[in-house]
């Protein structure tokens, strides 16, 4: 099983961020899988990473087919983002999930600040994931991160962790029992 397939099954937020990382790598490789595989050390066709190569080749092909060679998300990612926002709304407005309401209320002031600073018509969940992806990049680059940013990212991370668990439950039909 590829890394992406494992993340898709286990944690949807991690999956989206992973896809964004791979899309960035694919773009930096001019959508050339040979260059990409070489960058990732997957250029030996006899190695045990054929699932990774196949997944990356598929993602590259989807990016080309869907016209997101320079920027944007694949349809799959856009659909996941829409599902996650729908789930967020359901947890707040329909199920009134007390644990999620508590987690979300702690993140809400940070989310409001993020949304005020952000451009575009992305939904709140996409903004949270973009912020977490940016935070990951800053940490990889060993950049200094303010305590305020760290606090905000921690609240975003907790929010997305809870939604990811509920998303997995939804996909395995466990959340449906809450609706009855």
Short description:
With 180 residues, the chain is an all-alpha fold. The protein has 2 domains: 3-72, no CATH class; 77-179, no CATH class.
List keywords for this structure.
mainly alpha, 180 residues
Describe the structure.
The protein is mainly α. The protein has two domains: 3-72, no CATH class; 77-179, no CATH class. Helix content is 74%, strand content 0%. It contains nine helices and no strands. The chain has helices spanning 3-10, 12-28, 33-39, 50-65, 75-94, 98-117, 124-140, 147-171, 176-179. Helix 2 (12-28) packs across helix 7 (124-140) and helix 7 crosses helix 8 (147-171). The two termini are 35 Å apart.
What proportion of the residues is helical, as a percent range? over 70%
Strand content: under 5%
The number of E-state strands comes to: 0
Domains (count)? 2
Give the termini separation: 35 Å
Shape: globular
Radius of gyration: 18 Å
Biggest sheet descriptor: none
Please state the oligomeric state of the protein chains shown.
single chain
**Low-pLDDT segments:** none
Number of helical stretches of at least 4 residues: 9
- Overall mean confidence score, pLDDT: 93
Series of H and E elements: HHHHHHHHH
SSE topology:
Blueprint: H1 3-10, H2 12-28, H3 33-39, H4 50-65, H5 75-94, H6 98-117, H7 124-140, H8 147-171, H9 176-179
